[in-house]
Structure formats: C-alpha cells, structure tokens
Amino acid sequence: MPEPRTPRTAPYPQPAGDVESSRIRVRRYRPEDREAVRRICADTGFLGNPIDPVFEDRELFADYLTGYYTRFEPEALLVCEVEGEVRGYLMGCRLPLLKQSYQFFANIVVAVKAVYRCYRRPYNMASRAFMLWVLMNSWREVPVTPRNTPHFHMNVLPNARSVRSTRVLIRTFLDYLRARGCRAVYGQMVTYSGRRTVSFFKRYGFRVLDRVEVTKYRSMHGGRVLLCTVIKDLSSAPWKAPQARI
Fold it and tell me: Which of 103, 104, 130, 146 is most enclosed, with most CB atoms within 10 A?
C-alpha cells in the first residue's frame, strides 16, 4: 500500500532539524527512506541484531513496528545518515490517542496475516514459538507507560552507533516536542548485561518509570533482558541547541 502524503506544515526547529558532520547527518524522514527504515527495523530487532533467528517474517515485523510512524506521523521521524546512507532512525509520536486507535486495528490485521502465513508458508519452529509468546506473554511483559504522552523509540545499525549520533537524534526530537508545547515524553528501551543501560538517558534528565523482564530471549541470550520505560519532564529549561558539527 503506498504511503499517504502528509503535509509537512510543522518542520523541525532550526538549526536542530538537520545536523551534519563529515560522516553523520541527522535529518527529517522522507518517503523514499521507507524501505531503509523498515530494513533497519528488521536488522536490529533481536537485541540490536537481525530479527531472523527469532522471527523469520521481516516484512510483517517491520509492518507492526514502523507502519504508524511512516504513515501518520512522518514529520516526527528522524533518520541518521552515515556517509550518505540511512543507518538509523528515531520514530516519534506526538499524537498518542491517534496511535492507540491505529494500533487497535493494526493488531488485528497483523494477527490475521501472521496466522495465515504461519500455515501457508509455513513458519519455522522459532517463528511459531515467537507467535506463541506474543499470544500468551507479550501483553504481560509491557512496563507501565504514562497516559496521553508523546513517546519515541530508536534503532541504529552497529556500524553507525555512537554517543554523538544518539545524542543528536534525541536532542532534535525533544526540541521538536518543546516547540509544540509538549510537557513530557517517554521512551522504551531494552537493557541487558554488557550493553544498553539507562545511564545514558539519565544524563539527559530521563528517569526510569518501570521495567519488566522480556522472557522471549531467555533461550537465546545469557542473562536477563529488561524492557524499561524512561520518562522526561519537558517543562524544565531546555539545553542549548546542538551544534552543526557532531
């Protein structure tokens, strides 16, 4: 289905909208970025690595996680280019009630497709186990989130991950929310031993609201994997806009 056109009437504040260096550029999403964004979603879906060992249907996985953001709030979506290639993104939502309405119907569509493809293809054992986890446990393993509050999530390919690119993605999105009068924002992140702690977000004024263990990784990863909700009050004085060079 082609992406519906969304008027770009509310661009990101400048100079934070596009941030460049000799290697890295953070900019607004464009319709032609859709396939790259979906590919990155699938290539980082399993603890920062490709989702394939967990769930083989990359197309359906990307549909579920990116569909709303690319179709209904593309103006709140940032991409990170490295040497001219899109290698990361931050997907934001400023309209949580619209997102909830979309997700209700999207869940039904995705579920029907998954069941049909499971028997039509058929899916392998790992994919069937993933579907069983989604049905039986996924809804139990979701940390508390604040009501009617903007949110974001982000993924960057391993060869593009850096503190600087992550920092600018977050700063640019928070500037976007502040410019529109938003008072708070939350994000969800997966944390586990050896990588991804909440300390980075704490440096930017986020606090941990809740965390829950994600059991689907127990057989594939040594140690506990937690899904955390972090939240930030945007009513405090903002930092200075990021510099052009990162």
Answer: 130
Question: Is the distance from CB of 199 to CB of 233 less than 8 angstroms?
Answer: no
pTM above 0.70, yes or no: yes
Phi, psi of 13, deg, nearest 5: -65, 145
Domain range for 78 is 19-182
Q: What beta strand segments (E) does the chain contain? A: 19-20, 24-28, 77-82, 85-93, 151-156, 184-192, 207-213, 225-233
CATH code at position 56: 3.40.630.30
By DSSP bridging, strand 207-213 and strand 85-93 are unpaired
34-43 vs 58-72: helix axis angle to the nearest 10?
Answer: 130
Closest CA to 118 of 38, 67, 60, 66: 60
